[in-house]
Write a structure and sequence with these properties.
Elements: H1 5-22, E1 26-28, E2 39-42, E3 48-53, E4 58-60, H2 61-64, E5 69-74, E6 84-88, H3 89-100, H4 104-109, E7 111-113, H5 119-125
Parallel strand pairs: 3-5
Antiparallel strand pairs: 1-2, 2-3, 4-7, 5-6
Length: 131
């Protein structure tokens, strides 16, 4: 049986929810998926984060820019026990734009996703790892 994108999203949501609860977060699912909010997180120190859950590193200015969203995604090459990253979308977008934003496709669509985390991307994301 082939895993669908909905299956993958459900599995990712279950995996990261368990991890976040174990490290002190509270995880809430909005009644409706509006404005890119897949999850709402209450951090261990009480801050609220509106989160877009992805299966890979993704930025998309048209969908997520200027909405105070955080992107949450796993290391795409990892399996059980893989690393997860939680990063403000706009900060991530600015970094991606500075490193990869010179191509016509990025300039037109203002979006990029990565099928894997390169060494350069891993260095940048290190401080946003969910620990």
């Amino acid at each position: 049986m082939k895993i669908t994108s909905n299956d993958r999203e459900a599995a990712n949501r279950a995996e990261i929810t368990a991890i976040l609860i174990r490290i002190g977060y509270r995880v809430y699912r909005p009644e409706a998926d509006c404005y890119g909010e897949d999850l709402m997180l209450r951090t261990p120190n009480g801050k609220i984060r509106a989160v877009q859950l992805k299966s890979r590193p993704t930025v998309d200015w048209k969908k997520y820019g200027m909405k105070s969203l955080w992107m949450l995604f796993p290391d795409t090459k990892g399996s059980g026990g893989r690393k997860w990253f939680l990063i403000p979308h706009d900060k991530f977008y600015r970094w991606i734009k500075s490193m990869y934003g010179h191509g016509k496709g990025f300039k037109e669509h203002k979006a990029r996703n990565f099928s894997y985390i390169s060494q350069k991307l891993a260095i940048f994301l290190h401080r946003f790892a969910v620990t």
